[in-house]
Every structure is written in structure tokens, then in C-alpha cells.
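Incident log, support desk, overnight shift.

02:14 A customer reports that sequence design results differ from what the structure should imply. Their input is reproduced verbatim below. On-call engineer (initials T.W.) acknowledged and began investigating.
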């Protein structure tokens, strides 16, 4: 039978007496207005035509339904609303079954929940990721899911926003079946359900869940929510499902959804969502194909090199690690195997995947082994002479079309490239430690980097599951430039009267996992000290310079590993040290500064302004392509709270900066 069109994105055809409705709204079948209108029309049609025994809903392409159209948020609502569509599905006189071909997320998962039955294809996934957007499910998810799979499991899924695959979905009772031919199975399920009274999730009694388990699940969500409000609201709503009627629960869910949708937190997280999809897109690379990369050479298998190796191995690459001696090569291999073992112990990797990784790994003391590499990443000591000499040697070893990447944090990769025979193949890949965990990679587009080399570096980073952000060449690239401005401002405030612990407390209250002085102590103070000493001769003598960190280093206070830094760790806990307080007081006195008080707001405002100001300079200099890239760098590399949207977003919208 020919297809009937219900709207520009919804059509249906009859299969075995069942109306099979297809949602086709590229790219992710979001529930835009015409999708909602089409679904209602399709349900009307199925109800009206006597020969139709029921309905199957499925999606075109790789996605079932990716949820509400996030771009419609903030625009006036268009009827029918998504909750209305859900009610129409649930109350349909004939059985409606979801045939879930791909991702059923947010409103897409809610459509499946409102159906009378659900069949998953092998590529299906289910999730209510709304909390990641600073909102809660707004079309019945918080009320239908606990009624289907229980309160504890629903708190976990909705509170974390995580996605489940078919094997877990069936265990949870989220789906009735999993089938390669999900459409045929769904049509079969409609036949089974036809003529019976339909299970309407909304009308079911809720079994009283075990209170202790509900408490534990709630606590777990709250402990991970880092100052965001959506996860707590989600937990509250799910728990309402066992306390109130379905109708009351839905009303409370809708009210909460609308309130959160208009919050700063949601605006910030939407910004981050689109920023991530923008990142790494470079206009000049349009139509340029990346080079093929199968074997990755990594020179230096210390902490950073080993982390990069693990990231490459788990993404399926062959890895050749290089060390200077046999002994160091053995240790490097052990370090890499150790990280993989830990991942198996914590359940992030299966033993089979680890064994596959180890089979693709070689660590050698002979640099000649790199002849086979398509890409070589150096992760050796951050010294210009060392890196230049290494790249010159590599010129004679690797194929002319192999790519050479430097993982330098502070050196000028243009200088490294200029010393090689083919500067066009040199690019920066600035990983963050631990490289197998941290998502951010700054991909440094050097003066001579060839477009297909840049495209290859971006494709490689994406293949590793990383978030690549392109940076031009500047001291410290995007992240460390902004971090330096942030640090400078924090030290100015300390010199002017704020205590380090006040600055840290203000940052932690804002949402940073750790304040800046605590971060310093974790990382160690000596590397930055050495750099300041190197730069002393070229420093602008008229620029303000705070000596306090130097004085700490001179006193042997290099941070946590020496038991003392900005704080004291003798008791095993971080403690304010009167010695540091005295040292700061002396530094102020030496400059005739009479200390003043800073409020929490002032501390945060000044630090945000410092970061945003440096970010603006990076945009003017053309180092960063877009301000949202800067936000991603600070969120993913430096602990800037995601739900504040990054320093540029916070500055642009004046949401966190009082003028
Ligand atoms: N709305 C608008 N655009 C979207 C979108 C959405 N929901 N999801 C993706 N896009 C765009 C995206 O910006 C990109 O655009 C393109 O689609 C491809 O995306 C009432 C309130 C579905 C797993 O949070 O997780 O439902 O950059 O690169 O890797 O309770 O997209 O090409 O211009 O990510 O194949 C909840 C978000 C909404 C799902 C596909 N839903 N999306 O991954 O493609 S709130 C989500 C995803 C809600 C209800 C509530 C993924 C995907 P461009 P992509 P992908």
C-alpha cells in the first residue's frame, strides 16, 4: 500500500494491518512542531480507519528520535505540545508500539515510554539526558519511567542522564524485546496486544520501592551534581511518582521543566552542547580529506606518553612507543599495561579489549621502529633543543608523508617545525594529563601546517573520543594563556588583601572542583617558578609582578608533594599555614599595600573578567576561532564549571558579571 503523508516529516504505510509511522526529520528526528502535528494526525488516522489494528512508530536513518528540538527552546510554543502528543499515544484506542531503531533520547525516549509496548533494534539506545542540558524531562519521563522500571533505576537513569543499550534496557524492563528485525517484531507485538486492554503506564499503581535503596540512589545523584540544580529536581520529580497521582506528577514535572528551561544554568548548558558540535570545524578545511592513520608512534612513554598511548590503543590504533634504553622501554610498556589493567579493574574496559590493545603495542629502544608510523607524537621533556633535535632525526626515519605532532605545552611549535625538512607536516597535539581520561586536546595549527595535516590531526583526536579545539601558536596556547591571566589576577587579589583560602572558597562556591591555589599545590610550584626565572630578563619592568609564589618556592614549599605550598599538609589534610599568612603580610608590607577585604562576588567577578579579557585578546589575535572554543577549553581542561557555560559565555551574557 502506498505511503500516507501526515506532515512534512511524518508518513505512514500499512503493514500486516498495522500503520507503520516513520518520523523523518534530519539530522536527528527531533520532535519539531511538524513532527508533533504529524504524529497526532497519524494517531487520528489509525483510530478512524477500521481495518487498522494498531500503530508502530519508528525513526528514519540512524536515530529513533533525538528529543525535543533544542533550537526551539525559548521560542513561543506551537500546538500540540509534546506532553499532549504523549497523552494521545497513551490514550489511543488501539495499541501503539515503538520500534526503536537508534537513539531514543529525551522526548524520543518519552515517546517510547508512552507507547503500549517497545521493541529495540540492536543499534537502539535509551536515555533521558535532560539534566545535562540543565532541565528535567518535560513530557512525562519522570512519571512514566519509574512506573515502568521502578523508582531506584529511574533515579539513576534520569539523575545521571546516562544512556543504556538494548541488553541493559531489557534487564531493566524498559523494553519488551530486542530484535534485529525490530519492525517485524513490533508489528507482531501490535497483533498480540490488539483487542486487549492496554497497559497505560499512567494508570498503574506504583509499588512502594524500598526506601533505603531510593535514598541511596538519590544521594548518589546529588553527590555528583556539583552545584547544578537540575539533577536534584529530577530526583524530586521521580520520587513524586510514588507519592502523588500520575496527573499531579505530570503537572509538577511540566512546571519544573518550564522553570528550568528558562534558567541561566540551562542556557549555559545549551551553549556548551552547541559549542561542542561546533568545535574543531574549520572553514578552510572544507572538502579536504585527512590522511590515513593506522600506526601511531609515541616518543617518550612517561606519564603523558603512556596516557596518549592508552587513548590511541583503546581507539584501535597500532602503537609504537620509543624510549632511549631497553630498561626505559620495559618500564614504559609496564606503565601502559598498568593503566590498561586499572581500566579493567574499574570496569571501564573488558579484559578482551585490554588484550587486544596489548597485542597492538610495541615499545622499543630503537627509534628506527618509527619507519612504519603514519603519525608520530612526541611527549619528551619540554625543551626546545631536545624537541628540535628529535624532529630532525625523525626526518630521516619516517616516510615523507608521515605526520609529526608535538605535545609541547609552552614551546613555540613553529620553531620546532622550521628546523625540520618538511614543516608542513608538523602540527601540535596538546593533550591534558592524564591523557587517557581528559577529553580536551588543543590541536595547534602552526604557521606552516598543511591543511590535510590539520584535518588529519582533528580526525585523529575525534577518533580517540576527544574534544579537539584548534589553537593558533602563542605562548601556552588558548588554555594556558587564559590560565596565566587567571592566576595573575588571583595573585593580585592576594597581594591586595584576599587570603588564598578566600579566593579558593569563592571559586569552589562558583562551581570549580578546586580553587586555584589548591590546584597549584596539587600540580607543584617548581615548574612555573623555573619558567618565571627564565622569563625574568625579558619581563616588562613596569608590569605588576607578585613575588609571593617565588618566596614560597624559595622556602622550599613546592606544593603537596613537599607537604607544604600555599597550604600546609602535615596533618594529611589541607590547612591554612600561619607561615604563609605571615609571608603574604610581609610581601604586602614591602610594597606598602594596606590590605583590604574582598567579597566572594568581587573575587569571582574579577577572575571571570580576567579570563574573558584574555579570551577577547586571543580572538583579536586570531589564536582562537570562536569564543565558544575558549569556553570549551576552560571547561574541559581547567575545571571551569560547565553549567556556567565557560568564561566567555559568562562575560557575554553578563549573567555572572555585575557591571
Ligand atoms: N535539537 C536540535 N538539534 C540537535 C539535537 C536536538 N535535540 N540533537 C542534535 N542536534 C543537531 C546537532 O547540533 C548537530 O547539528 C546535528 O544535530 C547532529 O548531531 C521534552 C526537553 C541524537 C545521539 O539531549 O545526543 O527532549 O552541528 O553531531 O553524533 O523532555 O545529537 O550538524 O548543525 O550530535 O549522530 C534531549 C542530544 C533534548 C539529545 C546523535 N535530547 N543529541 O549524535 O550527531 S531535551 C538530547 C544527541 C528533550 C523533553 C526534552 C546526539 C545524537 P550540526 P550530532 P550524532
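02:41 Re-run completed on a clean worker. Output:
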Amino acid at each position: 500500500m502506498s505511503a500516507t503523508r501526515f506532515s512534512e516529516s511524518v508518513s505512514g504505510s500499512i503493514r500486516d494491518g498495522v500503520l507503520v509511522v516513520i518520523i523523518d526529520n534530519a539530522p536527528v528526528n527531533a520532535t519539531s512542531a511538524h513532527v508533533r502535528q504529524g504524529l497526532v494526525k497519524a494517531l487520528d488516522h489509525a483510530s478512524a480507519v477500521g481495518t487498522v489494528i494498531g500503530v508502530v512508530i519508528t525513526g528514519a536513518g540512524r536515530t529513533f528520535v533525538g528529543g525535543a528540538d533544542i533550537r526551539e527552546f525559548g521560542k513561543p510554543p506551537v500546538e500540540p505540545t509534546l506532553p499532549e502528543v504523549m497523552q494521545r499515544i497513551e490514550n489511543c484506542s488501539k495499541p501503539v508500539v515503538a520500534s526503536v531503531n537508534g537513539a531514543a533520547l529525551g522526548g524520543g525516549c518519552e515517546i517510547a515510554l508512552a507507547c503500549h509496548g517497545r521493541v529495540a533494534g540492536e543499534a537502539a539506545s535509551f536515555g533521558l539526558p535532560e539534566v545535562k542540558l540543565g532541565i528535567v524531562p518535560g513530557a512525562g519521563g519522570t512519571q512514566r519511567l519509574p512506573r515502568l522500571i521502578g523508582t531506584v533505576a529511574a533515579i539513576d537513569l534520569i539523575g545521571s542522564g546516562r544512556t543504556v543499550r538494548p541488553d541493559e534496557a531489557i534487564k531493566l524492563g524498559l523494553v519488551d524485546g530486542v530484535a534485529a528485525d525490530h519492525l517485524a517484531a513490533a508489528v507482531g507485538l501490535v497483533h498480540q496486544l490488539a483487542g486487549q486492554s492496554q497497559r497505560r503506564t499512567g494508570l498503574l499503581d506504583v509499588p512502594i520501592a524500598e526506601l533505603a535503596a531510593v535514598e541511596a540512589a538519590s544521594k548518589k545523584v546529588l553527590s555528583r551534581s556539583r552545584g547544578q540544580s537540575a539533577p536534584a529536581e529530577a530526583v524530586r520529580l521521580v520520587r513524586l511518582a510514588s507519592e502523588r497521582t500520575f496527573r499531579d506528577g505530570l503537572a509538577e514535572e511540566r512546571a519544573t521543566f518550564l522553570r528550568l528551561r528558562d534558567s541561566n544554568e540551562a542556557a549555559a548548558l545549551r551553549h556548551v552542547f552547541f559549542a561542542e558540535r561546533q568545535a574543531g570545524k574549520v572553514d578552510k578545511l572544507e572538502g579536504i580529506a585527512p590522511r590515513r592513520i593506522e600506526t601511531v608512534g609515541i616518543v617518550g612513554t612517561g606519564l603523558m606518553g603512556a596516557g596518549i598511548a592508552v587513548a590511541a590503543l583503546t581507539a584501535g590504533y597500532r602503537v609504537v612507543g620509543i624510549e632511549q634504553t631497553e630498561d626505559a622501554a620495559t618500564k614504559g610498556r609496564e606503565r601502559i599495561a598498568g593503566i590498561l589493567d586499572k581500566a579493567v579493574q574499574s570496569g571501564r574496559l573488558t579484559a578482551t579489549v585490554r588484550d587486544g590493545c596489548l597485542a597492538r603495542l610495541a615499545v622499543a629502544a630503537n627509534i628506527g621502529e618509527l619507519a612504519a608510523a603514519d603519525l608520530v607524537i612526541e611527549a619528551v621533556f619540554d625543551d626546545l633543543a631536545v624537541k628540535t633535535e628529535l624532529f630532525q632525526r625523525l626526518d630521516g626515519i619516517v616516510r615523507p608523508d608521515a605526520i609529526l605532532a608535538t605535545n609541547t605545552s609552552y614551546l613555540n611549535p613553529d620553531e620546532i617545525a622550521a628546523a625540520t625538512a618538511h614543516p608542513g607536516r608538523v602540527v601540535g597535539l596538546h593533550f591534558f594529563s592524564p591523557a587517557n581520561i581528559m577529553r580536551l586536546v588543543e590541536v595547534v595549527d602552526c604557521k606552516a601546517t598543511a591543511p590535510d595535516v590539520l584535518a588529519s590531526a582533528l580526525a585523529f583526536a575525534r577518533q580517540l573520543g576527544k574534544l579537539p579545539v584548534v589553537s593558533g601558536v602563542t605562548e601556552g596556547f588558548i588554555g594556558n594563556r587564559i590560565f596565566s591571566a587567571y592566576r595573575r589576577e588571583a595573585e593580585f587579589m592576594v597581594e591586595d588583601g584576599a587570603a588564598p583560602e578566600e579566593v579558593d572558597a569563592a571559586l569552589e562556591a562558583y562551581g570549580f572542583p578546586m580553587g586555584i591555589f589548591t590546584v597549584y599545590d596539587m600540580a607543584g610550584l617548581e615548574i612555573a617558578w623555573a619558567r618565571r626565572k627564565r622569563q625574568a630578563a625579558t619581563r616588562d619592568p613596569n608590569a605588576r609582578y607578585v613575588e609571593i609564589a617565588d618566596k614560597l618556592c624559595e622556602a622550599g614549599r613546592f606544593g603537596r608533594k613537599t607537604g607544604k605550598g600555599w597550604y600546609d599538609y602535615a596533618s594529611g589534610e589541607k590547612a591554612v599555614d600561619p607561615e604563609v599568612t605571615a609571608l603574604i603580610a610581609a610581601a604586602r608590607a614591602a610594597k606598602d599595600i594596606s590590605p583590604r577585604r574582598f567579597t566572594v562576588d568581587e573575587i569571582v567577578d574579577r577572575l571571570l573578567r580576567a579570563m574573558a579579557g584574555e579570551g577577547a585578546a586571543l580572538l583579536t589575535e586570531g589564536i582562537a576561532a570562536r569564543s565558544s572554543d575558549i569556553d570549551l577549553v576552560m571547561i574541559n581542561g581547567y575545571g571551569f564549571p560547565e553549567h556556567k557555560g565557560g568564561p566567555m559565555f559568562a562575560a557575554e551574557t553578563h549573567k555572572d558579571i555585575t557591571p
